[in-house]
Amino acid sequence: MNEAERLPRTLERIAAHLRGRGGTWEIVVVDDGSRDRTAERAEAAGATVIRNDANRGKGYAVRRGMLAARGARRLMTDADLSTPIEELERLGARMDEGHDVVIGSRALPGARIEVRQPWYRENTGRIFNLFVRALAVPGVTDTQCGFKLFTAAAARDVFSAMRLDGFSFDVEALFLARRKGYRIAEVPVVWRNDAASRVSLLRGFLAFPDLLRIRTNAWTGRYGL
């Protein structure tokens, strides 16, 4: 939402990397109710743009993009490229080994944090991850790094079943992927915090009740598991 200033640079960097890899590819941008020229600038940069008439939330936007994409492999990444697009090679290598979902991790040995978050956000994230492992996705060290690669089959199956529109959608996606039997791998990545991040501390705290919503949705059959 409202990414008209930094998005063109991000799209140029992604496109340059993908051109260097060869093969066919597409870039899908979901404009979540922006009030600036985000959509126009994304289209000018050659991206396929999906527009939400109003701000619906990050989970809703990512869900639309992942289901609209046509590639055999589908990467979700943030507009700020906190994880550089070059890290796609690490994720792709693990997918070549037979995994269906490969996620970037800032917590595994080998990860490199070049710019850290403020201490209060780091500590909130650690506490949140403890709850995530206890209630939803045991064994995953970092569900919230916004750099995740899905096979087309896993993306269609997982994102079509999702219900959360907010920032806990990452947890929901991994919860569903594991429940549906998809093979998940974590890969240490380079990551740098963007001072202009839109994730506020309040939104971070609001993610905690979503963990109970995920469990409730599973218990009541809303996911069709």
What is the CA-based Rg, rounded?
17 Å
Structural class: alpha/beta
β-strand amount: 15-25%
Quaternary status? single chain
Biggest pleated sheet: 4 strands, mixed
Beta-strand segment tally: 8
Compressed to H and E, one letter per element, the order equals HEHEHEHEEHEHHEEH
Low-confidence stretches: none
Description:
It is globular and about 45 Å long. Helices cover 43% and strands 16% of the residues. The strands form three sheets. A four-stranded mixed β-sheet has the order 3-6-4-7, sandwiched between helices. The chain has a two-stranded parallel ribbon with strand order 1-2. It is an alpha/beta fold and 225 residues long. Helix 5 runs parallel beside helix 8 and helix 6 packs across helix 7 (169-179). The chain is built from eight helices and eight strands; from the N terminus they run αβαβαβαββαβααββα.
